[in-house]
Design goal:
Elements lengths: L10 E7 L12 H8 L3 E7 L12 E2 L9 E2 L1 H12 L8 E10 L2 H8 L3 E6 L7 H6 L3 E4 L9 H12 L32 E2 L2 E2 L9 H19 L1 H5 L7
Parallel strand pairs: 1-2, 1-6, 5-6, 5-7
Antiparallel strand pairs: 3-4, 8-9
């Protein structure tokens, strides 16, 4: 979809990247892809190279003060941001995918889905000139405590997490209610046919038909998994659940 094909009132993701061909990628498949084709959300990739300087459309230069690598230029990224944000309306954050940013989580995904859209700046090399981030009040968001070669994969992950929460994207909206992180706990184990596999049966309680006992078992499993695997989440539970 080109930038002049904008559906009014539809949630949008705009991506500023050196690799626009990377999108939609995985976002064009499965439920997010179907929702994209159905017009439930829109995706626009802005090629950073279009704003490059000179004959060779240079987008980066050496770090001021010396050091390894290259830095994306302010006079390249700035105009790219302005072009993308010309389409912004309502609640529409401008986000830079950065390992030094605030950790992305389910709460942020829900907040993004409740807005009108978002613009994601995908870094490369050693990052972006700090003046750009300050001038445009860019939010820095991290996918985790690790470093990748660029922000494109992180951008796709954030978009997927937000888009699946948009109305009509999932076939059964109830499926988001008990999944990991929705209630501050990790999701309980799931089972399906066959009833016995590799000598391991489905837990009897799940076959009992007693929905109250099933709910109790699932809650206990979620709490146990959260305590074991994510003690940080367990400690952050509301005090009335402690």
């Amino acid at each position: 979809m080109s930038d002049d094909e904008v559906l009014a009132g539809v949630w949008q993701a705009r991506i500023i990247t050196l690799f626009p061909q990377a999108f939609p990628g995985i976002l064009g498949l499965s439920l997010t892809g179907k929702a994209l084709a159905d017009g439930l959300w829109q995706l626009h990739a802005h090629d950073l190279r279009d704003f490059g300087i000179g004959k060779h459309r240079n987008v980066d230069d050496t770090p001021a003060g010396g050091g390894a690598g290259m830095v994306l230029r302010a006079d390249v990224v700035g105009p790219a941001i302005e072009a993308a944000q010309a389409h912004a309306r309502g609640r529409w954050p401008l986000i830079y995918l950065s390992p030094r940013g605030r950790p992305f989580d389910q709460t942020m995904a829900r907040d993004l889905a409740r807005g009108n859209g978002m613009t994601l700046l995908c870094g490369r090399f050693e990052g972006v000139d700090e003046r750009v981030l300050e001038h445009y009040d860019v939010q820095e968001v991290s996918l985790g405590d690790f470093v990748m070669t660029g922000g494109e994969i992180a951008a796709a992950a954030m978009i997927d997490a937000a888009v699946r929460l948009l109305p009509g994207v999932l076939g059964n909206a109830q499926s988001t209610v008990e999944e990991s992180h929705t209630s501050g706990l990790l999701e309980h184990p799931q089972y399906t046919r066959p009833a016995v596999w590799q000598d391991a049966p489905i837990p009897d309680v799940l076959m009992s038909g007693n929905h109250a006992e099933i709910a109790k078992w699932r809650r206990a499993q979620s709490e146990a998994l959260t305590q074991e695997r994510r003690p940080d989440l367990w400690r952050r539970r509301p005090s009335d659940e402690a």
